[in-house]
Amino acid sequence: MPTFFVMPQALLFEPQALLPKPGTLARGLMVLCFLLLSQGAAADIFRPAYLELSQLDAERYEVLWRVPALPDNRRLAARLVFPKNTERVGESRSAIINNAWEERYEIKAAGGLTDQEITIDGILGGATDVIVRIERLDGTTQLERLQPAEPRFTVTASPGPGEVALAYFLLGVEHILGGIDHLLFVLALLLLVSNLRRLVLTITAFTVAHSITLVCATLGWIRLPGPPVEAVIALSIVFVAAEVIHEQQGRASITARSPWIVAFGFGLLHGLGFAGALQEIGLPDTAIPVALLMFNVGVEAGQLLFVGGVVISATLLSRVAQVPSALVKRVVSYGIGSIAAFWTIERVAAFIP
Q1: Which of 15, 179, 184, 233 makes an SS bond possible with 196, Cβ 3.0 to 4.6 Å?
Q2: How far apart are the C-alpha atoms of 69 and 247, rounded to whole Å?
């Protein structure tokens, strides 16, 4: 279900009272863009390591351990450290699938794993997060997202609906705020739209569109291969950045006149990207509607935080960066477009033999 901006009626009649002048905003946006681009050219291709524990009975679990393959198909040096009451049962099976090492085996934990701690050894100081999914016998799940600085978690008892909702909400917020390509697309839209009412309409159109495809793709109603979708998402950023330049040059286009149309069209593609992340995580069988709704709400909350942060930070930073607004807008647009063009080439090259 999409979320929307809610503005008091009085504010809609005087938008300039809330937004800084276009030139002021642009100067601040230049600094913000450089801060975003300084994160590096790695965009939001969601490839964390993945641990899945499927409970078979009170003490036995099936383990699926997947880590991204390094160049030359080398394996990431990360291993699972189970509690002392745990032992492997039978042989393990491993293979390279979709540029990732997958290993499957069974374990037996005397007394079960509830309230026991599991550690991921070998990712400390690295750049790989670990998504953890535990499927219990009663159909409930536990989800964790581990970062290199804290590579451990405790297996908990079956959660209530509130815990599921909070877990997926936080995953949605983390995903959008960590998705540099999605954020650059929104930043390009902010450069293109300075009027508050048009900005609200544009962001709402983007929200509605990616909410539609997020739901449809996650539930399996739409199936598209991930690499081409990611390439077109990068291309959408190039397109909007170019439209900002065209608008500066006085070359009117439908994007400048009706940016919500473009935001809606490309929002459908970005929704497929969000769905790819959610499919990696998975949905709990007993709370699919709650998890899907709260992940989407988390994405929207993160997006609103970003938009609000851009407007506030740009206003403050513009007082320090005294640069002509036209030059700033051009530099920011070329910066966004150049990085997105690199992503496009990189992503296309990844799936073309």
Answers
A1: 15
A2: 43
Q: Are 139 and 285 in contact (CB under 8 A)?
A: yes
Distance of alpha carbon 322 from alpha carbon 143, whole angstroms: 47
Domain boundaries, the chain: 9-44+179-351, 49-159
- Strands (E) across 137-245 are located at 141-146, 152-154
The pair of three-digit structure tokens given for residue 144, joined into one six-digit string:
């964790």
Q: Which residues contact 314 (CB under 8 A, 6 or more apart)?
A: 20, 24, 25, 26, 27, 28, 29, 31, 32
Nearest to 344 by CA among 256, 200, 237, 248: 237
Checking DSSP bridges between strand 49-55 and strand 152-154, what pairing results, if any? unpaired
Burial of 35 (0-12, 13-18, 19+ CB in 10 A): exposed
Coil, strand or helix at 229: helix
Helical ranges in 14-66 per DSSP H: 22-37
- Please name every residue paired with 147 in a beta bridge, in sequence order, or none if there are none: 150
Which range among 35-39, 189-193, 322-326, 328-332 has the greatest average pLDDT? 189-193
Report which residue type is found at 123: I
Residues 6+ apart with CB under 8 A from 181: 43, 44, 233, 234, 237, 273, 340, 343
Cα-based torsion angle of the residue sequence 282, 286, 290, 293 in order, rounded to the nearest 10 degrees:
40
d(C-alpha 51, C-alpha 107), whole Å: 13
Residues 256-298 have pLDDT tens digits of: 778 888 889 999 988 888 888 777 777 776 678 888 889 889 9
119/152 Cα distance (integer angstroms): 4
Neighbouring CB atoms inside 10 A of 61's CB total 24
Q: Residue 38: helix, strand or coil by DSSP?
A: coil
pLDDT in tens, 158-203: 777 787 888 889 888 888 888 888 889 988 888 888 777 888 888 8
Q: How far apart are CA 266 and CA 210, in angstroms?
A: 8
Question: Quick one: pLDDT at residue 82?
Answer: 93
Give the type of residue at 292. Answer: L
Token readout for 288 is 């699919």
Mean pLDDT of the chain: 79
